Amino acid sequence: MRRQYPFHLIEPKWQQFWEKEQTFRAWNPGEKIPQGHPFAQRHGLENKKADANSLPPKFYILDMFPYPSGAGLHVGHPEGYTATDILARYRRAKGFNVLHPMGWDAFGLPAEQYAIKTGQHPRKTTEENIANFKRQIKSLGFSYDWSREVDTTDPKYFKWTQWIFLKLYNSWFNPETNKAETMETLRFPPKQNMTEADKRAYRDSQRLAYVAEAPVNWCEELGTVLANEEVIDGKSDVGGFPVVRKPMRQWMLRITAYAERLLNDLEGIDWSHSLKEMQRNWLGRSEGAEIAFEVRHNTFDSKEREFFHDTHWLTVFTTRPDTLFGATYMVLAPEHKILSQITTPKQKEAVEDYKSFVSGKSDLERTELAKEKTGVFTGAYALNPVNGERIPIWIADYVLASYGTGAIMAVPAHDTRDYEFATKFNLPILQVVQPPNPKTDWRGFVDEGISVNSSGPEISITGLPTTEAKKKITDWLEAKSLGKKTINYKLRDWLFSRQRYWGEPFPIVWKRDQDGKLFHEAVPEHLLPVRPPNLDDYKPTSDGRPPLARATDWVKLANHVERETNTMPQWAGSCWYYLRYLDSQNSARPWNNLVEKYWMGTLEPRLPESNQEIDKEIKRVVDAAIFSPRHSRRTAIIGRVPKAVAAMAFQVSGLNIEDYFFRLDSYGVRHAFLQHKVEAFEKPRGQRALAAEDFYKLPAVYAAPDHIEDGGINQLGRRVLRFHKRINGIAIVAEEVLTGIKCLALQTMFVRETAGDELQPARDTAIGVSLSTADTDRSEEKFISKNSPVNQPTLGVDLYVGGTEHAVLHLLYARFWHKVLFDLGYVSTPEPFFKLVNQGLILGEMEFYIFRDKNGERVSAAGIVDIEDAAETLVGKEKVTGAKVVAHKIDASEVEKRGAFFCWKNPDLDIRVDFRCFKMSKSRGNVVNPDDVMGEYGADAFRLYEMFMGPLEMVKPWNTKGVEGVYRFLGRVWRLFVDEKSETEFEQAESTTEAQTHRELLEKIQLSAAIKDVPASPSQLKALHACIKKVTEDLDALRFNTAISALMVFVNDAISWETKPVSGLRDFLILLAPFAPHLSEEVWQKLQNPRHPQSVSLSYHPWPEFDPAVLIEDTLEIPVQVNGKLRDRLRVAAGATREQLEAASLASEKIKFFLEGKAVKKIVIVPMRLVNIVLE
RNA sequence: GCCGGUGUGGCGAAAUGGCAGACGCACAGGACUUAAAAUCCUGGGACCGUAAAAAGUCGUGUGGGUUCGAGUCCCACCACCGGCACCA
User: Fold this and answer.
1) pLDDT at residue A994 above 70?
2) What integer pLDDT is reported at residue A332 of this predicted model?
3) Which of A534, A574, A554 is nearest to A164 (CA)?
4) Protein CA A844 to sugar C1' B15 (Å)
5) Length A974 CA → B30 C1' (Å)
6) What is the number of H-type helices and E-type strands within chain A?
7) CB of A434 closer than 8 Å to CB of A404
8) CA-CA distances (angstroms) from residue A171 to A180, A181, A550, A878?
């Protein structure tokens, strides 16, 4: 494609300019901003030291930093980076102090494996890769503050990773305060005569970082152990090598202590629904009961009596205590400790055989081959506590030693797995739950119903619904000390050590006490960082000894003290990098506290300036009232003011806010509401609808807007809203305190009754979006939208963008570390990432496949079924014959569109072709290299295209033709501004001069003569302000694709203007700049002052204000429908009344035709929008 | 199996319950050109019409429902994508 504009000169020019001028430096409280910096000019900070109060509000916008692989950047990286860069530039223009950093997550296996192969030090590989990544990222013109760059493999960085590890090492989790505390607060158990060794052992057992001998995931090929999160289907996440369970001594982090908080705090952060679900899933909370079963030896015959000296107790975990009467056998995990004590001699051999059979299986076999249940009887029996029934105890590998108590009570009638097992081994199946639908088979029915056959001598739950039955039986068990309510999590402690070279060494040494017993101790903080030794051989050893152990000089310290030779996993460095960015040059501390508070938004918030007219006192109280923001992307949550806070607020202000509700919008702006009315609606099936009084018991309400009808004007002259639909749930009519805007929220979520008095919303069943406001009063609507992106900081990182692949690894670990640091007082927010967005995957370009049968004849895809993706090709079956066919990729030029299909270009066009997109992969050869795209179309076009493809979160296929489309658009922008003749001269000069002077030749290019310093015409203003409105709103909502289309619409219009008013075009450039910064800067410079080409960057120029007044039309085109079908359009005056609209509609000739001979039943008129005539 | 997400032209997509398909790609026709590229203009969901129009009918995965009006809200289902998967 012909070059549209000289991006090859413009882009490097501005990248160098920004770097030289430090245009995108983010300023910390206490820093002095250099003279003349546009940020200082904009915010009045010249010659001043910027303290936290004089700095504008912060905006922290973060990318997931990349692992610098040898392959270089792929097109997925710039997708997220472009989105964040656009927002960073937008926020800068809006007046924020924007923190937008970049760095390298550089520890990792590929560099180490390359080292093993070639002997090249991983540091060298890493440095080369970083250099290449940096070059590529810089060529995209992102506005990163490179002065804050971090590299996890830099000793200056991992010094603090080790420092945080020591914080974990020197802390324990206090269950009473539900938080981590330093070891000083740990009390020893009240036991006499604890020796120093006892005390040490106790302390070590309580640390957040501890050593455990546990069965771990050992990967032979990688020569290292792996975390649960790194094992997928029994294979290593990296490389896909088999993983086996093997007991080893390893470092663990006590993440399980935080399971509850990691789960609960998800509610307060703005992450996508699916991502939160993934985390919830991984945490795997389940509520149930532990029940103790007695295993009594006198239940066996006298000959065996001597083998059983005690009564044993076996505890099981179940989520369905209500099915206890249906427990017909028990199952233990083969690894269960009690096994040796209860197995009868007769069964001993069988049990031992089974145990060795199971231990020989890999994890993969244990899960994949588990379709058929296996197990053996132990010979022992337990007593069912409710009725004294003797139930046999089995062992089977479908019960996991690591979850719950490693033992279950099997209720085959109401558990799928137990049912399979019982069927195979002919164990009794006893119904204890009756399904609600009598036609449902009770066998294998696992849902809730009514308890049956559940009566014993002391307790009966027969006839109770499941929820009540659970509660009653649990209470009874608790009273008898036979059981208790329990919560279990699937989450396991984090296996934190790796047998690798290329990772952070542990700041730990091993010593021996007087008795020769080995113990560990922290390396003192002042000796950090502990650097890894130099090695010649990086290979792991097959016995699990880490490669660091080879460096004996490094390992062995004086007095027989030895270093820990394991290294930390790759995730360690990424657990806290977002904190190091805040203060990356600080060599004394990981970060400064004030700086952390400023960037994480915990300093005193400032009031939005635009709200000056609002009663400040109320605002202050409102600010004080909410300290725990709870909202998510789609759902605004209204919270009630806690009583204590309300009382406090009353003392301060005399204002009673107890009846207020608060809602945080997606910008963190607080809206207070006064409730007017609550109504309950139709009773839903199976569950009971909320009643008005229930509302007061709810801790939070998910609000959902639905049908709102205009209910006329009330005494105050305000529109009243009415809803008349039947809705299952409740409706709240409320008025926003600050603005007086009436809101209506329909609450269509149902509640389940729980045991206590408290009602809990059924999780995430809210269907709606947010409170909606009356759309009848336009000035109120304006008020809302104007105030939405307000200057109000949010807690933590304001926006974090990255791929889904880190949903449970990085994001869970980082939240965990952050919470520990929060507990210990090093950070000020409980969560690190306030809002998080996952970018969607970019697939390869569309590919065409033509099928051939076994004779090589081409066959139409129309007759092919069961098409599957088989390594690099497609296979399918012929529908008629069932014969196998294989597809071959063909070029797009061999294909012709025919109706809804693509056909092979033979004369008949009768052979249909299959078309689809695949994930980009080296082996398929469909990887798009960003360097190539940028070389051909430039960085601006590349950025623009990645954003124009579709919504950020969606999976979308790459299409090079699409890049050409946006490239053409940029060319049109260029031609909108420049004089064609001067450009031709430039091109001629460029082709005949030395390359070095090319950039100066840019100055040859003149502005178009059509650009004049004249006021814009009304229609020009209209086009501009429509664009301002759309781009601003879309950027706030992260809708980049539609923002770009608005820019295109403007340019399509403006290009035909005879005179182009310079002020309007300047505003347009500000709008375009976040998307295409290089082109915008270049044109801006020409526009500003052609005689002083080195004028200041447009990056800090204020974002244009949208003026709704210019968009008001004199006349409108109103569609007229008859029975909901469009029949005519009328042009009417904008202020036309209902009566005028009705008369005009009925007068229309076209409408008359449709009304002929029919009676008009009703006429629906929506002023300014539409008329609908309903006939009988 | 469980959980979550998504289904709209040939393709990427857009639409506070109110004119479905903005914007872009691909395509077709035209202008400019010796020609091509680039650029500019025009067209466009399908069907039925017609010399060409106009008018009309059907259209947002399927089937129901609510509503004057549904891509959008409710119920049931189907397909695809992603995650988890013997977690009691």
Assistant:
1) yes
2) 94
3) A574
4) 28
5) 26
6) 34, 55
7) no
8) 6, 5, 31, 65
What value does the mean pLDDT take over residues A1002-1010?
86
Q: From the alpha carbon of A1174, which nucleotide's C1' atom is closest?
A: B68
Q: How far apart are the first and last CA of chain A?
A: 61
Phi/psi of residue A1008, each to 5°?
-65, 145
Q: For tokens 């104007």, name the residue.
A: A786
- For residue A1164, the one-letter residue type is V
> Closest residue by Cα to the C1' atom of nucleotide B2?
A281
| Nucleotide nearest A966, from its CA to each C1' | B24
The C-alpha atoms of residue A3 and residue A1103 are separated, in whole angstroms, by: 30
Secondary structure of A990-1056 as H, E, C letters: HHHCCHHHHHHHHHHCCECCCEECCCCCHHHHHHHHHHHHHHHHHHHCCCHHHHHHHHHHHHHHHCC
pLDDT above 50: residue A628: no
Q: How far is the CA of A1143 from the C1' of B25 (A)?
A: 45
CA distance A82 to A179: 38
Strands A742-747 and A103-104 turn out to be unpaired
CA pair distance A989, A518, nearest whole angstrom? 78
CA A1122 to C1' B28 (Å) is: 36
Contacts of A1164 (CB under 8 A, 6+ apart): A1170, A1171, A1172, A1173, A1174
Q: Which tens digit of pLDDT belongs to each residue from A559-573?
A: 889 999 999 999 999
CA dist A872 and A889 (Å) reads 9
Closest alpha carbon to A99 in A731, A595, A440, A460: A595
Q: How far is the CA of A85 from the C1' of B83 (A)?
A: 29
HSE, side-chain direction, 13 A CA sphere, residue A455? 5
Whole-number distance in Å between A998 CA and B33 C1': 30
pLDDT digits (tens, 9 = 90+) for A1085-1128: 988 765 555 557 899 999 999 888 888 878 888 888 888 888 88
Please check whether residue A675 is in contact with residue A719, taking contact to mean a CB–CB distance below 8 angstroms: no
- Sign of the dihedral through C-alpha A134, A138, A143, A145: positive
For tokens 């052992």, name the residue.
A201
Residue nearest to nucleotide B84 (CA to C1'): A281
- Protein-proximal nucleotides of chain B (any atom < 7 Å from a CB): 3-5, 9-20, 22-27, 37-41, 56-57, 66-70, 73-74, 81-88
List % helix, strand, coil for chain A (3-state, nearest 5).
35, 25, 40
Å between A845 CA and B29 C1'?
Answer: 29
pLDDT per residue as tens digits for the range A636-683: 334 444 455 455 445 444 445 555 555 444 333 444 555 444 433 333
- A744-773 burial by CB neighbour count: b if 16+ within 10 A, else e? bbbbbbbbeeeeeeebebeeeebbbebbbb
State the nearest residue by CA to the C1' of B19: A1119
- Phi/psi for A319 (5° steps) reads -90, -5
C-alpha–C-alpha distance, residues A973 and A631, integer Å: 40
Cis peptide before A529 (omega within 30 of 0): yes
pLDDT (tens digit per residue) in A708-717: 333 333 333 3
Q: Which nucleotide is nearest to A398 (CA to C1')?
A: B86
Instruction: Report d(CA A427, CA A433) in Å as an integer.
Output: 18
Which residue is the nearest neighbor of B22, CA to C1'?
Answer: A1045
Compute the distance between CA of residue A304 and CA of residue A296 in angstroms, rounded to an integer. 12
CB A842 within 8 A of CB A893: no
Helices A960-977, A939-948: crossing angle, 10 deg rounding? 120
Round and report the angstrom distance from CA (A856) to C1' (B26): 31
